[in-house]
Amino acid sequence: MPHNTIVAAVLGLLEGLTEFIPVSSTGHVLLAGHFLNFHSPGRAFEVVIQLGAVLAILGVYATRLWGIFSTAPHDAQSRRFILAVLLAFLPAVVIGVMAHDIIKTVLFETPLLIAVMLILGGIVILFVDRMATNPRYDRAEDFPLSMAFKIGVIQCLAMIPGVSRSGSTIVGALLLGADKRSAAEFSFFLSMPTMLGAFVYDLYKNRDVLDAAALGDIAVGFVCAFITAIFVVRWLLGYVSQKGYALFGWWRIIVGTVALIALFATT
């Protein structure tokens, strides 16, 4: 099996394992790709394989999604929840389109920045996880529209690789009054349009640089991400409801520190 195919499988597994936990899947995949000497045309691989994780969560939540959309024509709460997710998605559309080239050509190519963001994000998660709060919301469907939009604005911080899309949305939701389970669940729902939109836009932007070999690597990473993400999504809600997010804060700090040491050792 070609070296790139093996690395693509490893990166796909890493994507699926880390996409829905607040540790920055993009940061992990970019750092791993850096040290494994893997480079995809236009950095499309790192974005497109996220579709595997999206399909995994769509599969896990298929029944619930059907319930929401099928009742929307005659149920005000279902319509309001759909609108809340769309409002939260809107800031990422605007900022993502405007800053796409800078994100892909500068931020994605700066391993030092990714490592630092992992560490700083880990410290933030540890702090927020230990805060004594009285959550006002224990169901993602109950988040007010204004709160959903604010979470969407906070999500834009994750365009800096290493910050974490799920981490920023979860921390934002916790600070705005969600309990730990509903914060993770809203992050799941918001990931669907956000990651699907990023996939479609990135595929369009890189349509001229993707050859057959690149598409083959993407397919391998996609399948690996899909399989592993299913298990992570099923496990995560139960874990954070009981244990919180401290594990992921320490994980980020350790990975970021090891990456910094490795980067300085190889320069």
Task: Please explain how this structure is put together.
This protein is mostly helical and about 270 residues long. It has one domain. It contains twelve helices and no strands. It has helices at about 5-20, 25-35, 45-50, 50-60, 60-70, 75-105, 110-130, 145-155, 165-175, 180-205, 210-245, 245-265. Helix 2 packs antiparallel against helix 7 (about 110-130) and helix 7 (about 110-130) packs parallel to helix 9 (about 165-175). The longest helix is centred in the C-terminal third of the chain and has 32 residues, at about 210-245. The mean pLDDT is about 85.
Topology:
Layout: H1 3-18, H2 25-35, H3 44-48, H4 50-60, H5 62-71, H6 76-105, H7 111-130, H8 145-155, H9 165-175, H10 180-205, H11 212-243, H12 246-265
